[in-house]
Amino acid sequence: MLLSDNVQRVATTWSPGDLIDASIGDDGLAVILLNRPICLHKEYFRSVWNKAKVRITVDGGTNRWVDFVKENVGVEEQLKPPDLVTGDFDSCTDESMSYVTRLNCKIIKTPDQNATDFTKSLKVLKSTGHDKDINRVLVLCESSGRIDQIMANINTLFLARSILPSAFVFIRSSNSLSWLLSTGVHQIEIPPRLVHERIWCSLVPIGQRVVCTTSGLRWNLDNRVMEFGSLVSTSNTYSSPEVEIRTDSPVLWSMGTTPKDM
Questions:
Q1: What phi, psi does 215 have (nearest 5°)?
Q2: β-pair partners for 262
Q3: Pick the CATH number of 3-12+179-256 from 2.60.40.3500, 2.60.120.320, 3.40.50.300, 2.60.120.200
Q4: pLDDT tens digits, residue range 143-165?
Q5: How far, in Å, are 38, 61, 87, 118, 123 from residue 148 at the CA level?
Q6: Is the whole-model pTM more than 0.85?
């Protein structure tokens, strides 16, 4: 079966430049900080955190936020406090809990061991009614560390659409931005400097066979089957600032980022 026979023709347009450069406005963004080192440029972190409509720290991510405030932020540049502090708190120190308690943050314990803290934080967004105010969720999490945790975060991208159907969820590390492309047609607007510098991008099939057709990449796919044990389209780059991807199943899109002078 050809790809064009079973995917929608109306494209979803993605403009990720503001998430890469922290040039967002007050447009319904939630930021979630997971328990990984904060390796982002500190001015990027400060900017995207303070501009967000909803700010969440998750379990040990609360430690990371408290440490960042104490180590990097002066009084005149104080970060806004988290709106929500959540998780099972097995990784959150008493000192950090005391700190966010003094800031009057809303603390919600989620002891369920059958879901990751990342997944539970999305459910907390829903249960507290904050989902009505957001259309995008930016999850700050370095991609280094345990591979099982990395795969669990990707799994949460698959779960996210059922938890927050009206919001798109992105994972941002210090050198990449990743999100799930659902079945259909997608047009991605690439920041010019990423095209000029030939920064990497990739398409990775997760858990199932995927058929993709692309344009705007240096090495395009033409109704090409991708699956583990066969082709996985990593280490690509751009031939155009406009990339189109047609896929018959969900596929993970990742794009490298380069620091911009803040």
A1: -140, 155
A2: none
A3: 2.60.120.320
A4: 877 888 889 999 999 999 999 99
A5: 20, 18, 18, 13, 21
A6: yes
